[in-house]
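User: structure tokens for this one?
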Amino acid sequence: MKIIVQKFGGTSVSTHERRLLVIDKVIKAINNGYSPVVVVSAMGRKGEPYATDSLLSLISEEFKNVNHLASDLLMSCGEIISTVVMCDEMQKHSMNAIPLTGGQAGIITDNNYNNAAILRVTSKNILDLLAQNKVPVVAGFQGLSEDGFITTIGRGGSDVTAVLLGAALNAEGVEIYKDVDGIMTADPRIVTDASLIKQISYHELFQFADQGAKVIHPRAVEIAMKANIPLIIKNTLSECDGTIISKESDNNSTSIITGITHMSNRVQVKVMLEDNKNNLNYEDLLDILANNFISIDLINIFPNEKIFTIDSKDLNTLKAVMENLDLKYITIDNCSKIAIIGSRIRGIPGVMAKILKTLTKQKVEVLQTADSHTTIWCLVESKYIEIAINALHDEFNL
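Assistant:
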């Protein structure tokens, strides 16, 4: 039995017309000799009646915060509605489709409601249905605790559901259907001539997902990479071939850089030793921030200063902590972190120099940099983000 997992996002299942396109993709998989397992998100986005955020708006913030078990039950309803509606449409096209909750599909979690961890996936129910030539339609984003309560596995979790099932079922591949053609070299809303990346490595895709590109959940990429499951990101609304994700990206490509993404709402923080000479808290600052649940990145530690960035949502917490510690510091608000990604960066001299020269030519000041084997990061003021990304996209011929 050749199994393929096909995951469809909220916009893909939001209308009757789009659900017909979903059915077309499932029928093509069957005609190609596959036994499909379909995973669906909640229908539509915020404001539409069955979207997750719309459902959450029915209860108070206070109740959500004190009763995570109840909010998980409510949040799970959007995906469950999607499974039943999708099965109804499929039945009309002579497909014997069976709706399943995450728990019925065998996804067992701990009881950390709102962000449950996966304990195991039991594939028996799905395999039994496939053996009967039925099409399982699974509610994404959810599981079942060992105590028998519905849990959710974090926003964007439908991607995770699809890859988990793909690994458990030893599937031939996992297709993630969105309303975009695949992974682009840059955000097409910023770079109008951004092009489709036809093939990309797991490591590169993880960087895209982790650094702001909202095409696939980073956890899904990690699971796929560990299980070595072929992934493909495709468009429900078109016949585009999409982006194939594998261990290694296309070795025939001549480009050093695969693509560019960015993350907004960053704040740069500078803490100078000279300003905090007699304050013993200076040396323990990073540990103290971690204990206060403030996540930091782009960390540069020098003999006379510490420089790092935080998310703007943590700024008020940072201010309170620093005041309590009596530490002096400087911040620059409204920053964005640009990530220049490519597995071929490693060992190629002059890439950072080329990036800095390109941005300097555009009069874009680089506030901070960092790099790894596959990514170079540059922090700039957010007002320059479009100029910076377009200039880099042109310079590297993406």
